[in-house]
Amino acid sequence: MSRTAPPIATFDLRPLAPPQRHQLAFQCFDSLAAGDCFELINDHEPRGLLMQFMQQRANAFDWQVLEAGPEAWRIRIQRTADAFAPTVRSELDDGCCNCSCRGH
Predict the structure, then answer these.
(1) CA 64 – CA 99 distance, rounded (Å)
(2) What share of the chain in percent tops pLDDT 90?
(3) Domain span at residue 15?
């Protein structure tokens, strides 16, 4: 009997306020086991979120762009390791990253 993979959870960030978007992404990521993934849908390229992942979850994730705008960006984020770099506290932790979305 063949085993089918469970569906990948998808989270649409567009209806959320900008400060909630990054928080949700990290909550989702931190709940994953190594090898698991989820997808995000955003209304702009999430460069600031990627920078935060590179800073706070270094060497523990894989970032794959599935759709590159212009109206929607779909990103698949996979947890590749059980451990990750210790969180580095920055102004980015308190909401939006001040990237190109400018809090929108």
Answers:
(1) 19
(2) 66
(3) 9-94
